[in-house]
Write the structure tokens for this entry.
Amino acid sequence: MSYTKSRRSTEILLVEDNRADALLVQEALKTCDPSPHLSMVEDGDLALAFLRRQGHYANAPRPDLILLNLRMPHKDGLEVLAEIKQDLRLRCIPVLIFTSSVSPDDIKRSYALQANAYIVKPTELDRFIAIIQEIEHFWGTVVSLFSEQGSLFPEDA
């Protein structure tokens, strides 16, 4: 008996204020098959508005996965993570911390707030791209993600 997972394009929300890193993530994901759909916001307030489909983001896609930087203007990544994990409608979305911080305190606090992974951004271009591709491969093909079609909240469908 074999199991074949149907492969659809993964919805990813990137929360990143560094434009160069955001563009690198975008370019790395273009090489994946199928290429995931990437939405990007540059701060924590916008991330929460996107996730809650407020204002300009009323028709935003529900992400399957969130890549979240820690150091950002307005609300930082730890504040955003805490709000996501406290929100019953959002808490099942995997959140991967993707940051340049190697601080043991940041790592500990991220996991205490229920981050699904803590990934330090590589400084080498090839490794940066490879990490993004590995993230997409694992979360897009290996893991069974909760989708909106299976929402706990029928009114969200």
